[in-house]
Amino acid sequence: MSDNRVIIAGGGIAGLALGLTLHQIGVPFTVYESVREMKPLGVGINLQPNAVRELFDLGITAGDLDKVGLPAEEWALVGLNGREVYSEPRGLGAGYNWPQYAVHRGQLHMLLYDTLVDRAGADAVQLGAKVTGYAMHDAGVESTVQIAGATRNETGTLLVAADGIHSAIRAQMYPDQPPIHWGGAVMWRGTVRAKPLRTDSSFVGLGTHRHRMVIYPISKSDETGTALINWIAEVTMDDAGAWQQDGWFKPVGIDEFIHHFEEFRYDWLDVPAMLRDADCAYVNPMIDRDPVPSWVDGPVALMGDAAHAMYPTGSNGASQAIVDARLIGAKMLEHGVTAAALAAYDAQLCGPVSELVLRNRGAGPFGLLNLLDERCGGVFDDIEDVIPAAERTDFMAKYKAAAGFAIETLNAAGPTIPHGARVTG
């Protein structure tokens, strides 16, 4: 064991991105992940250009990402009557120096896992091992790890908790934190083989802020013209205390929810027909956690969903987790493998990302549909008469700035971690 070892609690996208970053800059680490076997779980997610930039700097190539998804070309909102509210190019087409990717979450996870094991060795990720708590000592931090029904203590200089929305480390850091927050929205998610809408890779949000579909491809089209399409069907209930089910991501039958979307039929899309052809469907509430004043307790830090679980309305939860990992690495280059590095990470990100969590509760970029509903109930003849173009563009620009992927700012920024940089001493 090295004196500078970092213990990473959790082997999801956040923890693996941190492991890859620490390996890149020469910091020893061990990832402890509770599952006994890594499997490609989940459906579609988006990686914003700020996160793709970081993956490229980690040596994850466009070719690698093309195997788990495809570059996004367009982001579009459509009203209840099927007419366009707003659209814009995304990624390289929008002027970014890096693409935006729509990917299969599970396949991206496996890509990161396989890459980390290939680079750092199989022992870098300990499966079937859950970090359940921590204690400070003079040399750093001692973590309590449960492995195969037994409990042992692992010592490291730092502990970084990437153990998700149910984080045991966050619960110890904030024992009186409020319960998980649910605002009343339920999501059904799945995939289907179908022809992409609008372009070969458009992200389409359809409906209202309380009743909508999100549809986008996560694979390139095959010779038949069809692709693997990710869909999200969402309804906001009036009773935010009505969620009584156990679990957070459960398989369900289409008949349990298709009735909510029977009227979503247009000359360019038949939502009920698409749902009936789905490969799978899962239900979960749209949840997050109230922000906390700090993500750090001395040599212990939170990252990813453990720090800032957020509504997926802005498509930046996974992206922010990757950015977290890279900034932690950058601060270690500046301050060494020390609590000071974690404090600097916390000082830079905790405040603005906490604001983003709250902004996403207000529907994030889908807030345009809130305005549409308030002004016309979601049905209109000419969107210019309801929300003028300048107002729509300004709304989206403010969200991109808050989420850290404003074009001019991101394109002008130097690399988070310079090529070849290593922690010394």
Written description of the protein model:
With 425 residues, this protein is of the alpha+beta class. It is 31% helix and 28% strand. The chain is built from 12 helices and 22 strands. The strands form 5 sheets. It has an 8-stranded mixed sheet with strand order 6-5-14-15-16-13-20-17. Helix 1 links the parallel strand 1 (6-9) and strand 2 (29-33). Helix 2 packs across helix 8 (317-335). The radius of gyration is 22 Å and the shape is globular. 48% of the residues are buried. The mean pLDDT is 92.
Q: Sum up the overall morphology in one term.
A: globular
> Helicity range of the residues?
25-40%
What class do helices, strands and sheet pairing give? alpha+beta
Uncertain residue ranges: none
Strand order of the largest sheet: 6-5-14-15-16-13-20-17
Annotation field: number of helices: 12
Quick check: average pLDDT?
Answer: 92
Rounded to an integer, what's the Rg over CA atoms? 22 Å
Which key features would you list for this structure?
single chain; alpha+beta; 8-stranded mixed sheet; 6-stranded mixed sheet; 22 strands
Brief write-up:
A hairpin with a 2-residue loop joins strand 10 (140-147) and strand 11 (150-156).
What is the topological layout?
Blueprint: E1 6-9, H1 13-25, E2 29-33, E3 44-47, H2 49-57, H3 62-66, E4 69-71, E5 74-78, E6 84-89, E7 101-104, H4 105-120, E8 125-127, E9 129-137, E10 140-147, E11 150-156, E12 158-161, H5 168-173, E13 181-194, E14 202-207, E15 211-217, E16 227-236, E17 250-251, E18 265-266, E19 269-270, H6 271-276, E20 282-288, E21 296-297, E22 300-302, H7 305-308, H8 317-335, H9 339-361, H10 367-376, H11 389-403, H12 407-412
Parallel strand pairs: 1-2, 1-12, 2-8, 5-14, 12-22
Antiparallel strand pairs: 3-7, 4-7, 5-6, 9-10, 10-11, 13-16, 13-20, 14-15, 15-16, 17-20, 18-19, 21-22
